[in-house]
Here is the input.
Amino acid sequence: MNLLKRNQIIILVIALMLVSAGYLNFARNQKENTIPTTAEEESNIQYAGIGDAKLVSSNGLVDNEQNQLVENDALVENNEEENQNEIAQTTSNEVSKETSAYFSTSRLNRETMYSQMIESYQKILENESISETQKAIAQTEIQKINETKNKIMICENLIKTKDISDLVMFVNDKSVSVVVRADKLEQEQIAQIQNIIAREMQIEISDIHISNK
Here is the structure.
């Protein structure tokens, strides 16, 4: 009986020792896990985190600046191209207007010259002190001027049918000068112009002088 009780006491003591050892081991592990980091460690961790954040932010800023520079360069290039196109278009329009003005002004001056000549001969016809011979000459000159004007009109209209946008003719006795509105005249066009003028004006091709403007 005494032996049984002793064995029970020994088993109880061993059980208490195991429970105590387990509790002490658990308490030590819990303490190690809850030990706060030192100020230096916290500072290092924060510094590392802030450094990484700054690095990422800087890279993003650089990329944004580079993209903005590329966009600005493209915008400047587009603006320069548009300005050049506008300048070229403006220059082309100014040249076109100047050329148109040349032809219209030249025809007006030509008609004014013929009108003044006719007016001068008409005054001779109206002057009673002028002889009949001189009046006959004046009448003949008026007729020649009108015939020349008609021939010029016919020639210019026929030449325009040959893909010529504009031109002006000047007749001096049997010599004819023609200024054609064109950047370049093909040999075929020159031949067509010569044939028309030679036929209508009754002059030689060698007396026809053609230029472009």
